[in-house]
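Ticket #4471: structure export looks truncated?
Reporter: QA, pipeline team
Priority: medium

Steps to reproduce: submit the single chain below to the structure queue and open the exported record.
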Amino acid sequence: MLLIHNGLVLTCNDKDQVIPGGAVLLKEDKILAVGSSEELSGRYPGAEKIDARGRVVMPGLINAHMHLYSTFARGMDLKTSEPPADFLEILEKLWWRLDNSLVEPKDIYYSALYAIIEGIQNGTTTIFDHHASFGLIDGSLDIIQEAALRAGIRASLCFESSDRHGKEASRAALEENVNFIEDIKPEEKSYLQGMFGLHASFTLEDSTLKEIGRLAAALEVPCHLHVAEGRADVRDSQRRGYENIGERLDRFDIWQPDTLAIHGVHLSREEYRMLADRDCLLVNNPESNMSNAVGAADLPAAAETGLALALGTDGYTTDMFESLKVAALLPAHQAEDPRLGGELARQMLFETNGKLASRAFGKKLGSLEAGAGADVIIVDYQAPTPLTSDNYFYHILMGMSGSRVDTTIARGELLMENREVKILDHGKFTEECQRQAESFWQRF
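Actual output as written to the record:
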C-alpha cells in the first residue's frame, strides 16, 4: 500500500470535496481510501508513504484527443517554398507528408514514448490517441501500445482510416483498427482500449464509411474522428448531396455511443443536437484550432443542446493545464462576454473527460475516491488565498501548470517523483529520440 499524506487533496468527486491535511491510500490500481492524514496514517501505519508537504494532490489528468505521432514535427523544416496559407495546405504540406514519412518502427515508438513521457511530466495519466502512419500501417498500433505499456499510462488507440492514399492503404487502415481492437485481452481493458479511427469525412468515400459503421457496430466500439474542423469538410458533404456532415455520418452509423467528434468548429446547432441524441462527445482543442486558423466551436450553443463537451490537445501541446487555460479564455474572447468559458472548461476537463475515461476503461477515473483507479498527481502549488470546494478550479486555472507537477502516479505505479521520471533514463532516451528525429527529418 502507498499513502500520500499531508496534502491539500482536491478530490474532483461529485461533491468537489477539498481536504486540507488530506491523504490518499492506494493499493495496486485502486484507491482504498481518501480522508485526513491523521486518520489514514493511524489506520495504516505500515503503508509506504509519500509526504505531499502541503502541496496539491489531485487526480491524474485525461487527454481526450492526442496525436502522439506529431512529436517529430516540432521544429521541423517543411521544405516548402511558401508556408501553408490555410488549413488544407497545412494538411497537404505538413501532416499528410509527415504521416506518409513514418516508415520505421522507431519513428512511431520514439515519437509516441516521448510525448507520453512529456505528458507524464505535465500530469497526464490517460490519453485517447489518434494515430496515422501511412508509411507503416500494419502493426503500428502495437508499437504505440508498447510505448504506452512501458510508460505505465492508460491509452485508447486507433488508426486514422482514410481513402486519400488509395484503396489498398484504406483497407489496411481498417484492418489495423480491427486487429488491434480484437487483440486486446480482457485483463488489459482497464488500461488499454481501442476505438475505430477516421480522419475526416472529406477524405472518406461513402462505401468506406458504410464499412466502418458496420465494423464499429459489430465490434461494439466508438469511433474517433475529426469533424468539421475546416470548412472544406462541410463543403464536401454538401457537394456529395448531403445536407451536412452530421447527416452524412449518421447515414452510415458512424455516430456510435461514446464516439469522439473532434473539433466540430463548423457544425450547426442541429448537428450538435444530433450528436447529443446519439450519446456522442464533442472534443474541444482550442490551441490547435487557433493555430490552424479554422475558427472556434460555439461551445455554449453545443452545451445548450445537452452535448457532452470534452477537452484534448490535438498534439499541439502535451500539457492539459495549458489547454484548460485557453479553453476557458477562448469562448469569452470569441463572444466578447467575460461570463463564458470558465465553467465550460471546468466541466470539460474535470467532469466529461473523467466520465469518458471511466466508461472506456471500466473503472472510475478523474476522481479521488474509494474504488477509483489509482491515478494521482502532486502539484507544487501553495495557494496564496483560501482554496475551497467553491473556488479550487480558479486556483487550478490561474496558478497551476504542467511544469509544477512534482509527482505522477498511474495505475498505482510511481512514474515521476520530484520531477524525476522513474520509468527510464530520461536523458539517454531523449538523446536517442533526437537521433531518430534527425533520421526522420532527412526522409521527410
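Status: closed, not a bug. The export was complete when the record was re-opened. Leaving a note from the reviewer for reference: The radius of gyration is 21 Å.
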